[in-house]
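Quick one:
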Amino acid sequence: MILEEVILENVQCYYGKKTFRFTNGLNIVLGENGEGKTKFIEAFEWLFNGEESKLESLISAKKLHETNIGDRFSVSVSITVNQHDEIKTLKRFFIVEKLTDSVRVSKSEMNGDIVNLNGERTEVNGNHLLESVFPSTIRKYSIFKGEESLNIFDDKETLVSLINIYSAAKSYEKYHKRGEFLKTKADDAVDSELSKDTKHKKELIKIDANIKEFKRQIGIQETLLQEILETENALEKSIKEVESYIHNAEEINEINEEINKLNIKKNKIYIADDYTTFLFDERWILKDYKTILDEFTSKIKTNYDTKILLEVEHNLEQGKNKAQALTLVNNALPLPLTTPSKAIMESMLADQICKVCNTEAKIGSKPYNFMMNRLEALIESSKPSSTETEIKLFPNNYLRKLDYLSEELNENYEKLSSVPTQIKEKLEWNESLKNQIIQIDKEIEERENQKIRIIGKSTVGEETLSKNLKNYTGWQRDLKTVNREVNSFGGKIENINKDLTEEKLKKDRIQQLGGTNTKKLTQIKDFFQDISKIFTDTKVKMFNEFVADLEKKANEKFKLINKGAFTGVIKIYIKNIGLKPQAEIELLDVNDKAFIPNKSLETSMYISIIMAISDLTKETQDEHYPMLMDAPVSSFGEIKKRELLEMIYNVKNQQTIVLFKDYLDLDENNKLFIIRDFEKVKRESAQWAKLERPFNDEKLETLNTIIEVL
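Output:
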């Protein structure tokens, strides 16, 4: 979209109809303070916002003075643009009726018309046409009044909004939303099918209720977090404003760097103090388990002895097992037949050694015969029962399983013997980490106090700044509190998200258990989920690529504006915090250290980013929009100013309108003239808005701004 013409009719100092004509590229409007330059921007803004409360202030005093009582005239602002090979005109106006001692004004109206390539004119709704020609989401990033207004990035969401508007990532949003919609519909279909299954119905109802509740909790926490983030942004902005006026800015910058390093060091300290988790995951709960384990082992042994005794008596009664009938020394109970195992006893017999007591057992000796009898008894006991009358006293070997468990627990306890030491070391380690954080906090506080002392020595005259200086300490304290709250809310949201994910996984598992129809619908849902993820990932990828390109182009323009001077490097950080991602912009030196730029450097940084965004628009969209800047570089020197204008001039297919009070001076007769340096400024067009001379500097009705094409 190219803005071709702006007509002001009886607007403030613009008496009658005054026309500004523009073209693509760099357009310059010169104007001294108080001669109509800023009034042009204000009239332009009124065309867009249509504010009714300021209508009377827009009326040309000269026109009103020359109008007879009872007569009427029009006050209007109109623009003509060329968009998609159509000429579109927008006009906002109201009617003024002069009364004896006052005026009567009508409500403002907006007209619009379009002329196509065939010359056919069509009247349209002016407000609708305005939004089509120059969307409100774009306008607020296209018109800048004064140097301070360029700092639109104090709001950390602004840059993200611009990137979303201009980057190719935007084109994937509708696909992402469509994928989410289809996935939700498929999920509902799966739920509907599963609801017919009474087996899982109650469980699903409970899971859905949990999912809904977790989403509600996340929404609440994110809303609260967003409010905290806005407070954080405001505090950071206030602190930055105070620090920017301090004479010893370098010292403040060094202290800020130290504070930043300390905060990074502090954030790297992770205190694992979830002792409830350690209690179970690390088995700290078994620290004093030894007495219980000993009692358990003792009971197993006692019951084992009783079992063997009963088995021996039973076998004697059965007259079946001679080996079991052997009497041991001191009437001790023999080991179970399965101990040692068949393979071990065969090995001992082959080697003629009792490997349990390390004693020789020659063939024919009593120990050898004893082992042979036990082996035969074991083999015999392993055979299937030959008669139905044979009864086994203990058909199941549950006690042996308990014995194995006892052995395993005793082996594991050896590993647990270090638990008391682990607990002691963990508590001591966490305490040392807490002490480190306390020490870092003290160091940060000391450096904050250093900043306060430096600020206190600064001689600042402005009343507002003096008030800010008094509040500086409070802001620093509040910012620390807010930072803690941001981390707290972030942690809460993360934990709720974990619970939400777990509930969704439960639901997915139940869906997998459904019938044929449910499984088919689940596959469809998974398909749409995959599609949605592809578009989401692509959108994120395009967004990140745009940020990288933006950073690169912004730095290229930054170097051009500050040719031959120190600049540093523009760095853009995107953080996903709260409801929306946020962007932070810093200037880094060669060592990647952030520093506080002077006003001129800061302004050129903002202009570079704004121009880079506009430049990238042409690569990602078919549309681009004009940019209007009123007195954007009051802190620039002449050379830097010319380099900025040259950089803007060299940006092709970008319409930029810059309003300057620069390049004007007074001669010996107190008459304004354009200095010769302006001849060196490259531009597509230039106009001079100046008051018609002579005029009475005490009477508004004598003021009339005229436009001179240069």
